[in-house]
Amino acid sequence: MNGSRSMLRLATAALRQGSSLPGSAGKGAYCKTEFLVRGYAADADAYDKMPDSGKKPDSGEIVVEIPVKFNLHLLESGPPQEAITTKEELMKSYTDMSVIRRAEISADMLFKSQMIRGFCHLYDGQEAVAVGMERALTFDDSVITAYRDHGIFLGRGGTALELFSELMGKKTGCALGKGGSMHLYHRKHNFWGGWGIVGSVPPLGAGLAFAHKYMKKPNVVVAIYGDGAGNQGQLYEAQNLAALWNLPLILLIENNHFGMGTAEWRASKKVTHYDRVPYIPGIKADGMDMFSVREAFKYCKEHCLAGKGPIMLEADTYRYHGHSMSDPGSTYRSRKEIQGMRQERDPIERIRKIILTEELVTKEELKDLDKKIRAEVEDAAAKAREEPFPSDDELFANIYKADSGLVAYGCDRRKTKVEMP
Amino acid sequence: MLGVFRHQANGARLIVSKFLGQGKGGCSVRRPFVHASPLSRGMADVAVVADKMNVRDALNSALDEELTRDPLVYVMGEEVGQYQGAYKITKGLLEKYGIERVRDTPITEMGFTGIGVGSAFYGLKPVVEFMSINFAMQAIDHVINSAAKMLYMSGGKISVPIVFRGPNGAAAGVGAQHSQCFAAWYGSCPGLKVLMPYDAEEARGLLKAAIRDPDPCIFLENELLYGVEYPMSAASKDKDFTLPIGQAKIMREGKDVTIVTFSRQVEIALKAADILAKDGISAEIINLRSIRPLDRPCINNSVRKTSRLVTLEEGWPQHGVGCEIIATICDESFFYLDAPPERICGADVPMPYAVNLEALAVPTMDDIIRIVKRCCHRGRAAA
């Protein structure tokens, strides 16, 4: 059964139930979204039982079932419904996701104590997407995303110190403190940001893919956007060009079902994304299951590197926080839904269960690991607080790459006039 | 146009527009409001005009009154309806006017701006909200090519009574892509009217004027002023209160130097003028209110009186609003000047995020005082 169609049916039923008239802003009209907890699992019961795993005692490999079926568009066959993993991968993934989770919790606190200013869009809940993606890529592949970029940055090998420094505007930040939360970059690991304008990423990603192909690199580009950006015209333009020019582009849709405060069925005539383009194949994966994301990415990377052109990958995921720190996230979603997601589909819990069921480490060892991760992240935040701000002459640095002879002015033209050597 | 009045269970009055048909989207709800949700406290959320109002409530009251007055007016934008507005400017409007007239849109600026302009060709009067005027760049083709130029291109046959509005310029720590001031870019475009209110009364009067105006207006607000309260005059409470478009206001009379500014810098300039007065410099502060059309007579008359000019803005210096002000003085009042005009602008950089760098990128009161003094002590001595 197509999970998204059943969700749509539930959504329409909920809407009809909640309000008899358009214009009614009754909570029922759009907050009857508890079904999101279950509606996406093709088999709702799959989430009640532990993911089935068969341990092969000799090889040290663990087989993990991926309960939610992949939805395919224009593809004869898709990724396998099971993933082969090892203890190392499980522990690393658990650690990576926990680091992201703790970093976002710390960022929340730093924002509330005004150490972080402006906008702050948190990624907790979506860790499986960032980490599952990295399990299938290398740092020679390129990733570009929008403003919900903290988790992606950490997944790309950015350190927590660089992250917190940038969030607080310190000179040890990955953009020297001049970018902020929405503008994180890691050139060495091919992480291209960090963008503030909804919809701008797909064309930029297609451009990166164009360059990769032009320079004959055996790598893919992942351009990440959300369901809110799914209706942007420039996305369609980028899709057309990527398909026309056969670019090695994976368009990843982090579908957390809300574009700021607007639920997907209020913004889109068609709520799924992976199957929107009649000439670009797509896969829909369970974005709360790291292995589902991993297998889907492996498949997509193979597809692109075989020269088959772009592919869409929709990850059904969820953000626990609101859109940003100025949005409580509970005026357009019920707390029951958010709690339900945490209990039933939390990505870190999922891996924890596998680790404990397979008895890879003891419960105490895992608790110690949790403590260690928390301490490391909080230390990074504390260290970042002590770092200095960028110096005043940074104001005029890097306006241009070739700036010899450039004259730049401050607010007082006669007092602050800077000439580049 | 206005038909039935219905009394709600909570005693509030719901006006049903006969024009849009009863019950089918013209009115919000037939059943009484029973929700505890903050989203559906209904008409209590729409701002009421009072002796003191903040800019947010002033804008809200203006939208409310214009929606009531003219059934062809409608509001469109991201999160304007159910979310009550990203900055709460449109709170309560969905509950009062229904989804036909308060339309939530997907995040597709180019698309919904084009739709707004097209509907204006046919006679509707949209108020298109951009969550930030920075996002209006996605739609700028429709603002300029479709709206501003239309009346001229059609030989006067098709007008575009549309208002674009949203917060413009720097806020606090929102970074390079969310801090640009667009006054100069839009101000150079013939066919467009560009308004920039400062306090709550201006916000209310100018927005009402813009909605009633038959030409495309872009209404540039300031996010940092939304929550600031200002006193409202008795006249401003009238539901037909409007301010004239194209007229500046002399906020403070003076005789030594003219400071021309707009939006948030008006407040900072007024404070600077108090400090300057203690040093014996009497500064005249002009609040432009309207970037286009520019009130050239007001600026010129003032400089002819004071003989010195300082322009003040937060946007980028090159080709900024200050340049046009200085040019107009050179055109018409050059020989009245006793000193070269000074421009105070934002720094010539994309807005940095770090708090210390951001402070260097926007004019401060110290900058204003230093520059005004410098202007007053150069050139020929004041008579």
UniProtKB/TrEMBL annotation, chain A:
GO terms for biological process: pyruvate decarboxylation to acetyl-CoA. It comes from Ceratodon purpureus (Fire moss). It catalyses: N(6)-[(R)-lipoyl]-L-lysyl-[protein] + pyruvate + H(+) = N(6)-[(R)-S(8)-acetyldihydrolipoyl]-L-lysyl-[protein] + CO2. It is an enzyme of class 1 (oxidoreductase). CDD domains: TPP_E1_PDC_ADC_BCADC. Keywords: Oxidoreductase, Pyruvate, Thiamine pyrophosphate. It holds the Pfam family E1_dh. Its EC number is 1.2.4.1. It comes from the Eukaryota. GO terms for molecular function: pyruvate dehydrogenase (acetyl-transferring) activity. Residues 324-343 are annotated as: Disordered. SUPFAM superfamilies: Thiamin diphosphate-binding fold (THDP-binding). Tetramer of 2 alpha and 2 beta subunits. The pyruvate dehydrogenase complex catalyzes the overall conversion of pyruvate to acetyl-CoA and CO(2). It contains multiple copies of three enzymatic components: pyruvate dehydrogenase (E1), dihydrolipoamide acetyltransferase (E2) and lipoamide dehydrogenase (E3). This is pyruvate dehydrogenase (acetyl-transferring). Residues 334-343 have a biased composition (Basic and acidic residues).
UniProtKB/TrEMBL annotation, chain B:
It holds the Pfam family Transketolase_C. Its cofactor is thiamine diphosphate. Its EC number is 1.2.4.1. Residues 53-228 form the Transketolase-like pyrimidine-binding domain. It is an enzyme of class 1 (oxidoreductase). InterPro entries: PDHB_mito-type, THDP-binding, Transketo_C/PFOR_II, Transketolase-like_Pyr-bd, Transketolase_C. It is found in: Mitochondrion matrix. One of its GO terms (biological process) is pyruvate decarboxylation to acetyl-CoA. It catalyses: N(6)-[(R)-lipoyl]-L-lysyl-[protein] + pyruvate + H(+) = N(6)-[(R)-S(8)-acetyldihydrolipoyl]-L-lysyl-[protein] + CO2. The keyword Cell cycle does not apply. Keywords: Metal-binding, Mitochondrion, Oxidoreductase, Potassium, Pyruvate, Thiamine pyrophosphate, Transit peptide. Tetramer of 2 alpha and 2 beta subunits. This is Pyruvate dehydrogenase E1 component subunit beta. It comes from Ceratodon purpureus (Fire moss). The lineage of its organism: Eukaryota, Viridiplantae, Streptophyta, Embryophyta, Bryophyta.
